[in-house]
């Protein structure tokens, strides 16, 4: 049987519009990457460095066993979070206290992948240090960077990104077909067609279009901004206005301006053509990092000249002028300023004197968002809140950075960081959460309840990293402060953290005492979420002490509370722990079903730690019967723990050791090792499928699966991957737009995705499957 190569990870966003030209540049980048391990694309803003990098990486995706990965740095304002941001983009959820760069090196050491670092110019020193360390330690790593200047790292190959080829406008104009061979002309035509259907370069307008592209020096962003003007004026009027504007900027000289000035002139022209309210909104939107939705724009940017109900029309206007990019995220729509345009807006905001006020509004919006998330976390919208905070991570970082760098704002920052307590844990961002809390606690030492809450959370995150000494110091201060303030809620939280630390350190009687105190305190105050959180680990402590009846009663109470609130997160962890107790009592069938239900609940959170814990438990449960299956699961579990940079939870290690010994004895050492190696070779998705019994064959070379999509859905998925909107898909396939929308919705549902970008990545991974699908 012919085997096909395994699919590879392709973590690249879908293109929002068609990619034009650049064949020679793409070929050159590929050549450089074949010879050098670090290639930096250098050029002015708007020249197309990012698009070139992404297109080249997509073409090369099958050349890298462990995939191609994008790290967007434009919105990152805190240099100390650089390595952490790279780790997050690589989906590393390290739970140790080691330096993040060291974790990155260990994770990548045996990998063969392409890493794209986009927009490095504001983090040059930090990027250079990180890149040099990674290149020295990871032989299979290739890095493709984009920047306005080279990184200055040994072995770096720098490729200046040129503007798009343009015709010679001083000579005779070539034929229309010849003219369309120039990338700049083709780009202008395609972008013009987006705003003026039916537009094409013809004999009647070809000379004017050529002169426009020449005046714009072939800069892609400048061409796109200019083409948008055809919605309101003709090409002749567009050229006349360009000539007038540039003549003023060059004091009448006919010589070309520097490219940076050309692009800035186009951005200024776009700014000038906006209404007063659109200009005001453009400037105010620049305080956001990584995008925003309509609700955020209304809350932060309205007032003082803009009414809240005017925002939607102003946003539509800015999208139409190509100032804002529209992006679909499942059922919601978000908007993003290109970085060059965002920087221009920030300059205008600073000049207006509103920057401090808008940053404060943005901070307040973030504080309101995380406060609502905290209050509603224990309920039916938990998964949606998690996804929302994930999307807003860049904005949350910006708000926290503002609070750290603005006098008198540290306490507000501490409140934001503390309200994110379940997000830091669910997202696997223990290290980042501790980093913010450490700095904010130093910045504001006032003896307030906010400080006490920050100390309690910081201690909790430290305990989850098994970093017990600093946790103990913080708990002591937290406890003393909360007692002085008479804050029973924080005292209950401190008791919980002390109990969790005792449990992890195998002090089970101590865990029972502290966690029992926490449960009763939360019960008295009516704090259901805190009670469930403490109760599930109190039950575990009783289970480990052999108090089975008490443990089972408390697990059932936890599940009842979770089901009443339609909670997923705490219910999944209770099922994991309760399943282990049932297995210990001999009810393996019920235990296995509980572990699998826990995995189903954890999937929407991408809770890799929780899934690894359930996989480990399933390995123990399989050791009594299907010992080969146990060996595979033990191997898959080991790979998970290695990726976390931490061993299995110490208080469960006895179960692991005993079950592995049983499986080895019954299966035989050689057969166990063979199954174990199969498990270590599984991808994360394959390991989950095997644990859930969703895959009959395991650890064989990956085969191309039959597509779950119909032939028509596959065709539409390919168009989505090309960056087409529903309207463009409908036009291409000659179907109603509503029909196209329905197909896209069916595709998202079938594949279990919530964004068009995920569809694009999936299409890229299908390879030979693309020409067809199931009939």
Automatic annotation (TrEMBL):
PANTHER family: HTH-TYPE TRANSCRIPTIONAL REGULATOR RV0890C-RELATED, REGULATOR-RELATED
Gene3D superfamilies reported in the protein's UniProt record: P-loop containing nucleotide triphosphate hydrolases, Tetratricopeptide repeat domain, Winged helix-like DNA-binding domain superfamily/Winged helix DNA-binding domain
UniProt-listed SMART domains: HTH_LUXR (SM00421)
Name listed for the protein in its UniProt record: LuxR C-terminal-related transcriptional regulator
Superkingdom per UniProt: Bacteria
InterPro entries membership: AAA_22, HTH_77, P-loop_NTPase, Sig_transdc_resp-reg_C-effctor, TPR-like_helical_dom_sf, Tscrpt_reg_LuxR_C, WH-like_DNA-bd_sf
Occurrences of domain HTH luxR-type (ranges): 702-767
One Pfam family linked to the record: HTH_77
Signal peptide (from-to): none
């Amino acid at each position: 049987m012919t085997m096909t190569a395994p699919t590879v990870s392709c973590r690249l966003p879908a293109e929002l519009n068609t990619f034009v030209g650049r064949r020679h540049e793409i070929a050159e980048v590929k050549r450089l990457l074949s010879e050098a391990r670090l290639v930096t694309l250098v050029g002015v803003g708007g020249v197309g460095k990012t698009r070139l990098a992404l297109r080249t990486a997509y073409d090369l995706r099958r050349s890298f066993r462990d995939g191609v990965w994008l790290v967007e740095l434009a919105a990152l304002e805190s240099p100390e979070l650089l390595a952490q941001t790279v780790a997050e983009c690589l989906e590393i959820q390290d739970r140790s206290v080691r330096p993040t760069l060291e974790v990155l090196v260990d994770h990548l050491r045996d990998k063969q992948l392409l890493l794209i670092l986009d927009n490095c110019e504001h983090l040059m020193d930090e990027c250079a240090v990180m890149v040099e360390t990674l290149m020295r330690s990871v032989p299979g790593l290739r890095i493709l960077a984009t920047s306005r200047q080279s990184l200055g790292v040994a072995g770096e190959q720098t490729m200046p990104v040129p503007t798009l080829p343009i015709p010679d406008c001083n000579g005779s104009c070539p034929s229309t077909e010849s003219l369309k061979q120039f990338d700049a002309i083709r780009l202008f035509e395609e972008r013009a067609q987006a705003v003026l259907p039916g537009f094409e370069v013809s004999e009647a307008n070809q000379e004017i279009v050529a002169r426009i592209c020449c005046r714009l020096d072939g800069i892609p962003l400048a061409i796109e901004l200019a083409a948008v003007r055809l919605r309101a004026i003709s090409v002749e009027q567009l050229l006349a206005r360009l000539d007038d504007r540039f003549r003023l900027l060059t004091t009448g000289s006919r010589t070309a301006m520097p490219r940076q000035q050309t692009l800035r002139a186009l951005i200024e022209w776009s700014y000038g053509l906006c209404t007063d309210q659109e200009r005001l909104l453009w400037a105010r939107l620049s305080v956001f990092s990584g995008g925003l939705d309509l609700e955020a724009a209304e809350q932060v940017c309205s007032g003082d000249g803009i009414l809240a109900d005017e925002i939607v029309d102003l946003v539509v206007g800015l999208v139409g002028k190509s100032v804002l990019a529209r992006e679909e995220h499942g059922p919601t729509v978000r908007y993003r300023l290109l970085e060059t345009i965002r920087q221009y807006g920030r300059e205008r905001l600073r000049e207006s004197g509103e920057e401090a006020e808008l940053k404060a509004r943005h901070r307040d919006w973030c504080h309101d968002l995380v406060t609502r998330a905290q209050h509603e976390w224990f309920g039916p919208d938990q998964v949606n809140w998690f996804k929302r905070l994930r999307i807003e991570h860049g904005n949350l970082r910006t708000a926290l950075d503002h609070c750290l760098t603005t006098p008198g704002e540290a306490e507000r920052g501490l409140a934001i960081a503390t309200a994110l307590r379940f997000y830091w844990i669910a997202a696997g961002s223990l290290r980042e959460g501790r980093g913010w809390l450490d700095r904010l606690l130093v910045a504001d030492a006032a003896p307030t309840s906010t400080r006490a809450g920050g100390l309690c959370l910081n201690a909790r995150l430290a305990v989850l990293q098994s970093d017990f000494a600093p946790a103990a110091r913080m708990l002591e201060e937290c406890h003393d402060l909360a007692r002085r303030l008479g804050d029973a809620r924080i005292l209950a939280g401190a008791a919980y953290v002390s109990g969790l630390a005792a449990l992890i350190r195998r002090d089970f009687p101590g865990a029972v005492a502290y966690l029992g105190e926490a449960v009763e305190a939360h019960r008295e105050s009516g704090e259901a979420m805190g009670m469930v959180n403490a109760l599930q680990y109190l039950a575990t402590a009783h289970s480990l002490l052999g108090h089975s009846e008490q443990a089972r009663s408390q697990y059932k109470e936890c599940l009842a509370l979770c089901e009443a609130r339609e909670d997923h997160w705490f219910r999944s962890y209770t099922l994991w722990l309760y399943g282990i107790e049932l297995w210990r009592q001999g009810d393996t069938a019920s235990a296995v079903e509980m572990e699998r239900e826990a995995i189903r609940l954890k999937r929407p959170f991408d809770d890799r730690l929780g899934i690894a814990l359930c996989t480990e438990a399933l390995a123990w449960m399989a050791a009594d019967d299907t010992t080969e299956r146990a060996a595979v699961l033990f191997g898959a579990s080991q790979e998970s723990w290695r990726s976390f940079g931490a061993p299995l939870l110490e208080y469960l290690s006895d179960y692991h050791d005993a079950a592995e010994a049983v499986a080895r004895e019954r299966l035989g050492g050689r057969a166990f090792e063979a199954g174990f190696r199969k498990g270590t070779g599984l991808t994360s998705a394959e390991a989950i499928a095997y644990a859930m019994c969703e895959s009959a064959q395991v650890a064989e070379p990956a085969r191309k699966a039959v597509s779950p999509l119909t032939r028509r859905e596959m065709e539409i998925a390919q168009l989505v991957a090309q960056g087409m909107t529903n309207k463009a898909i409908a036009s291409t396939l000659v179907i109603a737009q509503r029909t196209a929308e329905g197909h896209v919705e069916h595709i998202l549902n079938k594949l279990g995705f919530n964004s068009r970008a995920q569809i694009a990545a999936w299409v890229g991974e299908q390879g030979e499957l693309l020409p067809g699908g199931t009939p």
